[in-house]
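Entry:
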Amino acid sequence: MTALDSNSTVAVVGVGTMGQGIAQVALLAGHRVLLHDGVPGRAQVAADAVAGRLDRLAAKGRITAGEHQDALARLVPAESLADLAGAALVVEAIVEEAAAKQALFAEIEAVVGDDCLLATNTSSLPVTAVAGGLRLPGRLVGLHFFNPAPLLPLVEVVAGAATGAAAVATAYDTAAAWGKTPVRCTDTPGFVVNRIARPFYAEALRVYEERAADPATIDAVLRECGGFAMGPFALMDLIGQDVNEAVTRSVWEAFFHDPKFTPSLAQRRLVESGRLGRKTGRGWFTYTEGAGTRGAAGVPDPGSEPHTAGPAVPPAYIGVRGSLGPARSLAGLAAEAGIEVRVEPAAGPGAIVLPGGTPLRLADGHPMPAPGIRFDLALDYRTATRVAVAPGDGVHAAAVEQAVGLFQALGKKVSVIGDVPGLIVARTVAMLADLATDAVARQVASAQDIDTAMRRGVNYPLGPLEWCELISATYVRDLLDALHRDSPTGRYAPCRELRRRAAAREGVISS
């Protein structure tokens, strides 16, 4: 283990919210912590703020009286950079500007010893560029904490082009010793989380822009059917529309306008209008007290209900034709609910056949042939509490009622949405899986670290690679191929590695 000894000194430069959080983490791990900021007097203010947080932790019994007093004794405001001379680790958490970070590290390098580890908490800038002007660039590593640093477990340990293996190992082991969950990654735009999470927002925005569903319904489907802890529209409001869009734009520009990362015009208009989310009282939803169910420009407030179909009579029986793939559990659930299940001869794509002959098929990226109905992918059809269905052209209202009644009989709320290819959960999960698979192929991070990062960093119910394995690379590839044919911009084209995995799986099955 190469973690820094707890008796060594850690310096944090830049004492905003993130810097204070990192300082608190290091303090409670036993380090002496120096706080420094370029603005005179701000280090003392930050030290007082951190002390206040420690006071509250002690009052709640989260830390003992002894731990509280010891941590306060180790917290030292440093008015001069020269005071950092004995630090074993310096973590920078200043403004996200490359020139400012480069200039600061040049000053720090002139003060600290050659064995001092340097770390930048950048979330969007290349670690390689930040280290570019250093005399010893091999000792600078990315140490990307997530806000709030004391609460969120994930830390991305980012190796720049010149970063030495020893620096990465020390940073990784130190983060682990601090009680965090570190993951290693290379210096790529967005690192792991901000790179791979883009479709969670982008596909929701695309469904909204295509007017297939409103934000409240999209959020509800992704939460209650997809298993995500928070819907993308509510999460964008929490993060801040300006911050979220800036990250998307940064990744898009860093990838030379790759269509897989294209920003949303709808979100751009929201930012331009000043509706930035919770911090301004309005974003996709309104947060002002006493707001009505519909705010300005038809934006629903947090109390707005998603579209939920009224009660419907379930069908007395259903037919099951061919394989239902990731939705195979539905036949058993229907039988448990007292609905007769009739096995029909396989002919064409797998489907649940409603009385009267209307097929009900899992979203696969294709528009539903008329007349037919699509239903969305669920993380687990047994535990899901909502399912989205999308009638194709020419479907009779009676068939839609049967589909709604079927899922209601299984204990689900039903949202009837527009017939957009891939619906909501299926296209989102497919895109997450594609970006994760591509990142593994490009050695951005290991499959295990990517799944860990997405579960621990943004609280996904499954890592995207685990999810791809669960529903099969073949299903993901075929869904994306269909989306690509519908919208041939390159946005949905499956990566080469996903195609390879799907082909390998088909080879195993055929053999």
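Residues 195-298 form a domain with the N-(1-d-carboxylethyl)-l-norvaline Dehydrogenase; domain 2 fold (CATH 1.10.1040.50).
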